[in-house]
Amino acid sequence: MSRILDQRLLLLVISFSASVQSTKVLSEWKKCGDPECEKAMSRVQATTDYLGPDCRYLNFKTGEEIMVYSKLSRENENLWAGSKGKDFGYFPRDAVKVEEVLIGEEVEVLTKETDFLCLHEDKYTFE
Fold first, then answer.
1. Which of 7, 63, 105, 110 is 20 to 30 Å apart from 32, CA to CA?
2. Measured between alpha carbons, how far is 88 from 81 in angstroms, rounded to an integer?
3. Where does the secretion signal sit in this chain (predicted)?
4. How far is CA 35 from CA 69, 72, 78, 107, in A?
5. Is there a contact between 84 and 58 (Cβ–Cβ < 8 Å)?
6. What is the distance between the alpha carbons of residues 87 and 49, in angstroms, rounded to a whole number?
7. Phi first, then psi: what are they for 101, rounded to 5°?
8. pLDDT tens-digit profile of 15-38?
């Protein structure tokens, strides 16, 4: 009985650590087209297929169009956030090429907990 309890505890610890890892803050700062990050900054096209490591990331295929709404800055400048249809998430900036710039100036703002929201089976998970 003790062995079963030990195995369950180990699985719980592994599950918890994977959950925390997938909801960690990716950067404390981001650049946007406006202070609320509501305006699209640019329209980009995927230059490669991309499958993200967890649900915070946007998956896409080569040639798909993505609207960019923010770009992480300072600690993690390689990740941009955008949407493709109804899907939204982060993706590496080197996986796309800019087709059209839609804003004149970028604004740097602090990220929020909701920027790193992960949706699992209709439940929201925050760090």
1. 63
2. 7
3. 1-22
4. 11, 14, 21, 6
5. yes
6. 15
7. -90, 130
8. 444 444 445 789 999 999 999 999
Pick the CATH number of 26-104 from 3.40.50.300, 2.30.30.40, 3.40.980.10, 3.90.600.10: 2.30.30.40
Instruction: Tell which wins on pLDDT, 4 or 95.
Output: 95
Provide the 3-class DSSP secondary structure of residue 21.
helix
Taking the C-alpha atoms of residue 70 and residue 65, their distance in angstroms, rounded to an integer, is 16
Q: Cα(36)–Cα(3) distance, rounded to whole angstroms? A: 52
Per residue in 43-84, pLDDT (tens digit) is: 999 999 999 999 999 999 999 999 999 999 998 899 999 999
Q: Is 107 helix (H, G, I), strand (E, B) or coil?
A: strand
